[in-house]
Write a structure and sequence with these properties.
about 160 residues, mainly alpha
Amino acid sequence: SMNTAASKAAPKTAEIFISAIDKMRLTDAQKILSGGNNAATEYFKTNTSDSLKKAIMPIIQETMKENQVATYYETVNNIYKSSAKGLVDNSGVMGMAKSFGVDSYIPGSSDESLDDFVTNKAIEGLFTMIAQKESAIRTNPVEQTSSILKQVFGK
């Protein structure tokens, strides 16, 4: 399952974040301290995204292969592209879907593989969680649970 994949990926992602911290320059730290509520998250996005993708992708591919998810998806996607896409594009179905707010559920013209899509969404979700936690630490003294966080972000 995807939970298993996430559990397998967690130790590798921790190493990547530690490496980004080790490589942090003084100017990076100053930008994070003086930046907005997600300045650290943006630093990590810039300095870890490629490495995270390289580390997480094989785990997701393995998990998807075990569950044959990619095979089923590719089959359905190929049928859609060869048969239904033209109908959707030319019949106004997409406009109707947009009016109901469900257009994001209709396949687009992207050739992004399911593995890439799931990997990118996993990384996007990870950074969303980091940004939420960072914002809480910066704005709420209760979230500043260690002495170093209190020193850095305490007012």
